[in-house]
Design brief:
Organism: Streptomyces cinereoruber
Shape: elongated
CATH topology of the largest domain: Tetracycline Repressor, domain 2
Keywords: DNA-binding, Transcription, Transcription regulation
Order of helices and strands: HHHHHHHHH
GO molecular function, one term: DNA-binding transcription factor activity
Protein name: TetR family transcriptional regulator
Distance between the termini: 67 Å
Largest sheet: none
CATH class of the largest domain: Mainly Alpha
Number of helices: 9
CATH architecture of the largest domain: Orthogonal Bundle
Number of strands: 0
């Protein structure tokens, strides 16, 4: 009996994870609709639903790609954890602000993709652990760092006299990690 690989004869797939994400990133993710995305991809609306269940599924794919793009190489260590976090924050700034609506979307309360943002959280907690923070303080520091950077990016350019990102980042990192008790 011949084993099947799951591929069916016929036309090759016109969609892929990469194509869907690339098309989603070409416009404002805040106002993105499944019909608009299908149109950008040149496929039927029902074809798109074979790849992703809904708009949240598209945003999950976008989050996966964003986290892959912005995580710095290597593990943060005791000597370079601040520099590692600064590289991460600058990468977040560059990637989030390059996509219209993405920083504002991430800054608002919503369901984050558990795997991609879990990877991000894990790496940032590792940086704070390398800085000497205990587990509880490392988790609190992740929350302060993540919330601070994302909120700054979500409001970027909307506040008169707001500090530059570099001033904000330097001040934030100077106060981290959190030291409880």
């Amino acid at each position: 009996m011949k084993k099947t690989t799951g591929n069916r004869p016929g036309r090759p797939a016109r969609l892929s994870r990469e194509l869907i994400v690339e098309a989603a990133l070409r416009g404002d993710v805040e106002t993105l609709t499944m019909r608009e995305l299908a149109s950008r991809l040149g496929v039927s609306h029902s074809s798109l639903y074979r790849w992703v269940p809904d708009r949240d599924g598209v945003l999950d794919l976008v989050s996966e790609v964003m986290v892959e793009r912005l995580l710095p190489e290597g593990e943060p260590g005791a000597d370079d954890w601040r520099e590692w976090l600064a590289r991460l924050a600058r990468s977040m700034r560059d990637e989030f602000l390059a996509v219209p609506g993405y920083a504002a979307h991430v800054a608002r309360p919503h369901r984050h993709h558990p795997e991609s943002f879990g990877r991000l959280r894990e790496r940032v907690v590792t940086a704070f652990r390398a800085a000497g923070a205990g587990e509880t303080d490392a988790e609190l520091s992740w929350q302060v760092f993540g919330f601070g950077v994302v909120r700054w990016l979500g409001a970027a350019g909307n506040e008169p006299g707001e500090p530059s990102f570099e001033v904000f980042l330097e001040t934030l990192l100077r106060g981290l990690p959190v030291r409880s008790g």
